[in-house]
Recover the amino acids of this structure.
């Protein structure tokens, strides 16, 4: 059964006459699958992520998760769905997505606290486990974000999303703020998690090479439309759309360098 | 957590002499408010027909009033009622302002619209008129007058609370909390309170000062006065009746009111200024401190031909001086040169960059070393600059471009106007000339249709365009040195290449020195004349990219 189904999603900011940011976008994610969505700054990538989780209302189209139409959920039903934590968004910028006054451990426990899972000790324990799962020392849990490095913060963000044992992660540029070494670590981590827990991921990126060898399939978003999609290798080796071709042409010079 | 943070703000505020003096005065007034009546040398109500309107002397230090009562004793005894009156007003203001202010964000559009109109209406109401009405209605008592003042302070709290909370509800961490299904009460408790409270504390200090002034003005009109009980305002007004015999008399209560209001405002300023510094707390502040013992040894300073920036033996401590994270970094950047400062997150490159630009977060400090700006109009020791000094240097001498242009642009002002402001901050030219220069600058940073861009707001620009605008602002003061802190990291590869080309052109055309701080080795290898590699708080390698990574640059050709 399809885990996430987005069909004909159109999104615009502002009134009826405002130009659409996303035009009839459709995509699917199967359980345990990693789908990469690639696009340049301003292509509507972040809007796509925010619309799927319900931070931005859609003008038309449907978002279905595990057979439930999310776009139809309101108030109580929406809150109950969110508290189950089956769908988690990993924000792009951990400095902004983590409260600067709240320690890493408290941040990670927040989804559990919000849902009122178990007793406090249990939540603390699960937060500590999530911290370990992303490869961070438990002592770092006591720190506020300002006292963590960029790579550590990104892992805290990931741990917070994982703590509810979600079935799908939506990652908005999960590694763009990281250096090459940390980038590799975080992507490796996502792959391992997928193998261990079967979590699926929709990974948004502007960086083609970070998706190659990582995503099972990619969709190319250009000016608010999906212009190309297919198995990753297939799209990389045989790009059809001119934008994908340009993107690939610009990348090799950088790819040969960052790999080292 | 919030308690820890507030204590930190208070401690930082108290480093300022003005804040310490202000706090001393406030504490003194608190003591007087509680014990003033008991400490007064004489009974403030005892009349003495034999000693009316005496001048200051040994028996009555501040003289006596028209009934022969001791003025000093009345001032001291009146402190309590004056302070309680002001607190009463502020308390009512808090109650009527804060909760409706928060509610206006969450109770839907209808409530929001109505509450905003009500607040607007109250803000246009003169306080004297309302105070007269209220005291007319409830009787002429201090409480009635203060209730009126409280009602008029409420809109201030409403607006301050609403504005602070509104900004916070749009942060990603509050959005994240909503996605977890957190209740509003939980969001308020976890994420909003600790950040609104310092703002409310500042507002309260200012409101107390205003309330004291207002209660005195009202007393002058006879409102809220309950003879024979003294308040500062009552002393002020009764003295005025005998101004011809005792021209100095209003001086004492007047000075006291001024002193307290001044102290409260100075204290509020100190909290606000040091609290605002929190916003600068930035990336990569600490992890370099976790460096293990096997530290690489740093390289020595390599002199260049025409140095614009010289950093020597720079050490930076974090954690309020407990840990050293940058261990003696030295380098130079020369005119017309592009130098890349690279390293992983936590290598100390951001701390170094922030120390050079004077933007170290609170708790981080330069503990040793020098940072000098050379050439141009004479050398400047950046390490010794205060805020005013920095204002003279940022712009005309150093331009800075950051990773996230959107957060450095004001979302509600056209970007052209923001550039004009930057231009006019450093040169004495007319608005029209500045506008023409802004268009020129927009053209020179490669913005097509500069006239259109001029009138656009930041949200209407793409990431690449916003970065160009920020670069235009950075070079508007015609600086010698441009520092780009991860300026292209958030852009996609095509736009990144364009912006880097632009920077290279600027270096060539203007003879700028460019320090490029980045974690992207590809950018450095492709783009920089020289590379400084940062590792665990030291510069471990430096030289042309081809020498530092022969294998990388080899792969390119």
């Amino acid at each position: 059964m399809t885990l996430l189904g987005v069909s004909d999603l159109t999104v615009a900011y502002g009134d009826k006459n405002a130009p659409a940011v996303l035009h009839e976008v459709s995509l699917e994610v199967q359980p345990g699958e990693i789908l990469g969505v690639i696009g340049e700054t301003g292509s509507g990538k972040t809007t796509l992520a925010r619309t799927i989780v319900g931070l931005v209302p859609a003008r038309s189209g449907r978002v279905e998760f595990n057979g439930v139409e999310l776009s139809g959920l309101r108030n109580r039903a929406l809150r109950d769905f969110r508290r189950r934590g089956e769908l988690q968004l990993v924000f792009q910028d951990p400095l902004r997505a983590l409260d600067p006054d709240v320690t890493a451990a408290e941040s990670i426990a927040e989804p559990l606290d919000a849902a009122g899972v178990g007793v406090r000790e249990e939540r603390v324990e699960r937060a500590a486990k999530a911290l370990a799962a992303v490869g961070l020392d438990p002592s770092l849990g006591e720190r506020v974000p300002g006292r963590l490095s960029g790579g550590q913060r990104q892992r805290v963000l990931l741990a917070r999303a994982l703590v509810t044992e979600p079935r799908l992660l939506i990652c908005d540029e999960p590694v763009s703020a990281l250096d090459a070494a940390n980038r590799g670590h975080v992507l490796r981590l996502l792959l391992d998690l997928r193998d261990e827990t079967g979590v699926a991921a929709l990974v948004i990126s502007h960086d083609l090479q970070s998706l190659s060898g990582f995503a099972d399939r990619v969709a190319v978003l250009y000016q608010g439309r999906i212009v190309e999609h297919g198995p990753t290798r297939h799209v990389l080796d045989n790009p059809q759309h001119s934008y994908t071709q340009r993107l690939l042409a610009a990348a090799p010079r950088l790819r040969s360098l960052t790999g080292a | 957590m919030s308690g820890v943070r507030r204590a930190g703000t208070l401690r930082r505020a108290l480093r300022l002499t003005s804040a310490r003096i202000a706090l001393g005065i406030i504490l003194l007034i608190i003591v007087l408010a509680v014990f003033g009546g008991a400490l007064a040398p004489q009974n403030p109500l005892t009349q003495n027909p034999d000693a009316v309107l005496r001048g200051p002397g040994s028996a009555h230090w501040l003289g006596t009033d028209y009934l022969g009562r001791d003025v000093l004793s009345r001032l001291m005894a009146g402190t309590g009622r004056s302070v309680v009156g002001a607190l009463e007003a502020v308390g009512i203001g808090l109650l009527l302002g804060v909760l409706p202010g928060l509610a206006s964000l969450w109770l839907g559009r209808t409530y929001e619209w109505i509450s905003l109109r009500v607040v607007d209406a109250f803000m246009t109401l003169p306080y004297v008129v309302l105070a007269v009405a209220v005291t007319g209605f409830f009787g002429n008592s201090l409480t009635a007058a203060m209730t009126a003042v409280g009602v008029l302070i409420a809109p201030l709290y409403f607006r301050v609370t609403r504005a602070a909370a509104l900004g916070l509800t749009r942060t990603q961490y509050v959005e994240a909390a909503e996605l977890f299904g957190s209740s509003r009460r939980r969001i308020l408790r976890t994420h909003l309170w600790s950040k609104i409270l310092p703002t409310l504390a500042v507002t309260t200090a200012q409101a107390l000062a205003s309330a004291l002034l207002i209660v005195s003005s009202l007393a002058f009109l006879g409102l809220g006065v309950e003879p024979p009980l003294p308040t500062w305002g009552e002393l002020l007004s009764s003295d005025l009746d005998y101004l011809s015999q005792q021209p100095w008399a209003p001086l004492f209560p007047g000075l006291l009111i001024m002193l307290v209001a001044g102290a409260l405002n100075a204290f509020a300023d100190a909290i606000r200024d040091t609290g605002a510094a929190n916003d600068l707390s930035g990336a990569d502040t600490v992890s370099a401190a976790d460096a293990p013992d096997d530290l690489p040894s740093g390289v020595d300073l390599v002199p260049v031909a025409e140095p614009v920036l010289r950093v020597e033996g720079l050490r930076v401590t974090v954690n309020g001086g407990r840990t050293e994270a940058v261990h003696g970094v030295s380098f130079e950047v020369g005119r017309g040169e592009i130098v890349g400062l690279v390293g992983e997150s936590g290598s100390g490159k951001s701390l170094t960059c922030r120390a050079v630009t004077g933007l170290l977060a609170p708790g981080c400090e330069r503990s040793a070393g020098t940072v000098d700006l050379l050439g141009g109009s004479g050398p400047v020791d950046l390490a010794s600059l205060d805020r005013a000094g920095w204002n003279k240097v940022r712009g005309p001498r150093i331009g800075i471009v950051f990773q996230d242009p959107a957060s450095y642009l004001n979302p509600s002002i056209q970007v052209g106007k923001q550039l004009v402001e930057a231009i006019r901050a450093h040169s004495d030219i007319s608005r029209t000339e500045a506008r023409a220069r802004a268009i020129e600058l927009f053209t020179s940073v490669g913005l097509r249709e500069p006239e259109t861009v001029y009138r656009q707001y930041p949200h209407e620009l793409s990431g690449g365009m916003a970065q160009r605008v920020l670069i235009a602002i950075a070079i508007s003061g015609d600086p010698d040195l441009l520092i780009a802190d991860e300026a292209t990291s958030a852009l996609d590869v095509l736009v990144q290449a364009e912006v880097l080309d632009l920077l290279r052109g600027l270096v060539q055309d203007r003879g700028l020195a460019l320090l490029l701080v980045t974690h992207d080795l590809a950018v450095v290898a492709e783009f920089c004349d020289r590379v400084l590699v940062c590792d665990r708080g030291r510069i471990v390698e430096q030289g042309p990219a081809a020498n530092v990574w022969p294998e990388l640059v080899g792969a390119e050709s």
